[in-house]
Amino acid sequence: MHRATHTSVDGPQESSPGLELISVDADVRKSIEVLVVDDEHSLRESCASLLRTEGFAVTVCGRGDDALRLLKNRRFDIVLLDLYMSEVSGLELMGEAANANADALIIVMTGNPSVESSVTALRAGAWDYLPKPFSATHFEILMGRAAHAAMVARESRRAESSAASPSQSHSDHVRLYGQSAALRKVIDLATKVAPTDASVFITGESGTGKEVIAQYIHLHSRRSSRELVSVNCAAIPEALVESEMFGHVEGAFTGAVREKEGLLEVANGGTLFLDEVTELPLQTQAKLLRVLQDGVVRRVGSTKTDAVVNVRVIAATNRDPAEAIEDGSLRKDLHYRLRVVPINVPPLRERPEDIPVLSERFLMEFWGQHREPGSPPPTLSAAAMSALRHAPWAGNVRELRNVIEHLVVMVAPGSEVGPEDIVFIDEDASRPTGGAAFFGPALMGLAYHAARDQVLTKFEVDYLTHVVRSSGGNISDAARIAGVDRTTLYRLMEKHDIGRDSLVKASQTTDRSS
């Protein structure tokens, strides 16, 4: 191990002498038990010396069998071990360390680094991976991140022990609704990985609920008291993506009038959710990989290290990652780093058992949101539920949610909903549909959200026109027919520039002419 310049993707950079590499309180460091296991004497003692200088409680061991005995009898917060040792393998030691302390952070060192060995170690439960040789600076930064993670884990355990029902409090924030075997598999996997710091790579079609899975993992993790920062990588202009991710210093580019921290710094101590990660430019992917490896952030336009971050990353894409790697839109090394635990969310059409549960859930949610308190909600008939179950749902759960919201706005309180009441955006002659007058070739040529907006606008105008005319212009009666309060009705009429007097006059003119 040697002290050297830190080389980033932008070139060599001297380590900042003022940078606090281990950013936890000295008293906390004293309470963190570290075990260093390596059969190379000089490396083992160098690591131990640096750690003791920083105030950690350090135990060293040069033989795998001795380390095995130690792990069976003592709890260590951080275990630093060589992957390849005689007599006892590093993977066996990892298992024993996890059995002794489920929250132990295991850092694997090896002089034979490869993509395969790193993936094997990370999948086996390693918190991070350290290829030899490594600089003292790199080692100190990594141990600082580990110490911070150990501190966060302790805080979370204390918070959970003081809460009456921690698991219930998590569930109150984000719940995953469904009863299919496919969804249960996803939930079980998310539940298992949540308490760890392992990176998660979520795949699935648009609208399947990948962000909800990410929220569930974060809220069931030991980072739940910290921030979950969600980033839609496809929505950030390419010219601004590096500034958004890494921050910038004053004067870094035109318009950079003040220093700004990036999203990685905002998520420090918490979770960063990268949605549509394959849309990140390759140069940004390279810089992101470097930050994930050593925790060091250098802002755009900066000539020094600006921050050390400890972030858990959950990534998602609606593409096949193998295809994205093949066409060059996703770096293979970044994919390996992010895909410690892969989760695939199946499309809604492959789990029709979940449609009744989701439909009832959305029905009650939107009824409370759009209708007057106390008004009786509608019920879905067996025929209506059958229509929902057999729809193709190209837009998945998001599309189902929109269809149910439209339904809630349209039907009368306490009514029974039939298949004729359901408006599907994507009609198909092979299944029951409703509201055919809303659709036409021009509408079908629009993007989904534009088409949906047109349908909702036409419905609201036609419906409001009907209820106001039916009540003879009496807004109180019209609101009662619609099952909403007068304020809501006035707001909707103003939104669409519908005048009560003009509607009544038009209705009277029509009556006289007939």
Explain what you see:
The protein is an alpha/beta fold and 514 residues long. The protein folds into 4 domains: 6-162, Rossmann fold; 167-346, Rossmann fold (3-Layer(aba) Sandwich), CATH 3.40.50.300; 348-437, Helicase, Ruva Protein, domain 3 (Orthogonal Bundle); 440-514, Orthogonal Bundle (Arc Repressor Mutant, subunit A). It contains 22 helices and 18 strands. The chain has helices spanning 26-31, 41-53, 64-73, 90-100, 115-123, 136-162, 166-173, 181-193, 210-219, 241-246, 263-266, 282-294, 321-326, 332-338, 354-370, 382-389, 396-410, 441-444, 448-470, 475-482, 486-495, 500-513, and strands spanning 6-8, 11-13, 33-37, 57-61, 78-82, 105-110, 128-131, 200-203, 228-232, 247-248, 260-261, 271-275, 296-297, 307-308, 312-317, 341-344, 379-380, 416-417. Strands 4-3-5-6-7 form a 5-stranded parallel β-sheet, with helices on both faces. It has a 5-stranded parallel β-sheet with strand order 9-12-15-8-16. A two-stranded antiparallel sheet has the order 1-2. Strand 3, helix 2 and strand 4 (57-61) form a beta-alpha-beta unit. The protein is elongated. Residues 2-22, 162-173, 427-442 and 506-514 have low confidence and may be disordered.
Gyration radius from CA atoms, angstroms: 29 Å
Strand share of the residues? 5-15%
| Proportion in helices | 40-55%
CATH third-level topology of the largest domain: Rossmann fold
Question: Can you tell me the CATH class of the largest domain?
Answer: Alpha Beta
Global morphology: elongated
Would you count the extended β strands for me?
18
CATH architecture of the largest domain: 3-Layer(aba) Sandwich
Tally of separate helices: 22
Strand numbers in spatial order across the main sheet = 4-3-5-6-7
Number of domains: 4
Q: Report the sheet with the most strands, covering strand number, pairing sense and barrel closure.
A: 5 strands, parallel
- CATH-defined superfamily of the largest domain: P-loop containing nucleotide triphosphate hydrolases
Mean pLDDT: 79
Distance between the termini: 96 Å
As residue ranges, the low-confidence spans are 2-22, 162-173, 427-442, 506-514
SS-derived structural category? alpha/beta
